Amino acid sequence: GEARVLAVRRAVLEYELGVNHTDTEELSAGEEHLQRCTQLLEPHRLSPDCVSLYIQAQNNLGILWSERDEIKTAQTYLESAEALYNQYMKEDGNPPLDPSEHFMAEEEKLTDQERSKRFEKAYTHTLYYLAQVYQHLEMIEKAAQYCHTTLKRQLEYCGYYPVEWALNAATLSQYYLSKQCFMESRHCLAAASVIFSQAGQVPSAEDSETEQDQQDLRQRKADIARCWIKYCLNLLQSARKLLEDNIGELDPDRQMELKAQRKKEEDEKEKGRKKAVLFGTSDICDSVLAMEEKVSSVYPLDFQEAREIFLVGQNYVQEAKEFFQVDGYVTDHIEIVQDHSALFKVLAFFEEDYERRCKMHKRRIDMLEPIYADLNPQYYLLISRQLQFELADTYYEMMDLKVAIGNRLEELDSHTIKKINSLAQLAIKYYELFLDSLRNPDKVFPEELEEDVLRPAMVAKFHIARLYGKLITSDSKKQLENMQTSLEYYTFLVDYCEKYPDAVRAIETELELSKEMVSLLPTRMERLRAKLCPFI
Amino acid sequence: QVALRIRSMSAAELAAGARTIAHRRDEQVVVLEDPSDAPHASCSREQSYIFDVAFDPTATQETVYRATTHGLVTGVLSGCNATIFTYGPTGCGKTYTMLGTDGEPGICVRALGELFQAIEDTSGDTEYRITVSYLEIYNEMIRDLLNPSRGHLQLWEDAGGTVRVAGITEISASSAQEVTQLLARGNRQRTQEPTATNRSSSRSHAVLQLTVCRWHRGRGLCRGRGLRRGHLFMADLAGSERAAQTQNRGQRMKEGAHINRSLLALGNCIKALSGQASSKYINYRDSKLTRLLKGSLGGSSRTVMIAHISPASTAFHESRSTLAYAHRARSIRTAV
Question: Where are stretches of biased composition, namely Polar residues (chain B) (predicted)?
Answer without folding.
Answer: 192-203
